[in-house]
Amino acid sequence: MKRIRNNHVGVDQGDEVLFSDFEDGGDMWTGNGPRERRKLVKFSARYRVPPSVHVSLSLWDMDTQANLRAEVVAEEVTNLGFHLVFRTWGDSRIARVRMSWLAIGELGFADDWVIED
After folding, report:
1. What DSSP element (H or E) covers 30?
2. What is the side-by-side order of every strand in the sheet holding 94-106?
3. Residues 99, 14: contact at Cβ < 8 Å?
4. How far apart are CA 10 and CA 14, in angstroms?
5. 95: alpha, beta or left, given left = phi > 0 and alpha = psi -120 to 50?
6. What is the DSSP track for 43-95?
7. β-strand partners of 103
8. What is the pLDDT tens value at each position of the chain, 117 positions in all?
9. Taking the model in full, what pTM does it have?
10. Which of 80, 103, 101, 112 is nearest to 6 (CA)?
């Protein structure tokens, strides 16, 4: 559990298209084996410390003739942003993916000391 030390809680959210490989024959649609797509997301404001980030699929367009495999995660979360990551493997054929995200974390106080290196 993340405990927040003040009442300055920031909630940021978004919905991002990661890829659309059906139209141009991209590797998520035509490939085989392990495949990954990632997208850098920047928060609309700086968090005091890295927030908790939740991700989910908001659109998944896939071929039902193959096995459906997917992993969706937030990686490299910092106080400025994170990477949305979609992975598939084997014979899965994914035409399009859009992912939603929600970040909740502590914002700085106006009178916080900022010490830079």
Report:
1. helix 27-30
2. 9-20, 94-106, 52-62
3. no
4. 14
5. alpha
6. -SS--SSPPEEEEEEEEEEE-TTS----EEEEES--SSEEEEEEEE-TT--EE
7. 12, 53
8. 767 666 788 999 999 999 999 888 899 999 999 999 999 999 999 999 999 999 999 999 999 898 899 999 999 999 999 999 999 999 999 999 999 999 999 887 777 676 666
9. 0.86
10. 112
Tokens of 37: 């797509």
Tell me how far apart the alpha carbons of residues 103 and 15 are, in angstroms, rounded to a whole number.
12
Find, among 34, 51, 45, the residue nearest to 102 by Cα.
Answer: 51
The length of the chain is 117
The two structure tokens encoding residue 103: 């970040």
CA separation for the pair 110, 8 (Å, rounded): 10
> DSSP secondary-structure letter at 22?
T
Backbone dihedral angles phi then psi of residue 23, each to the nearest 5 degrees: -65, -40
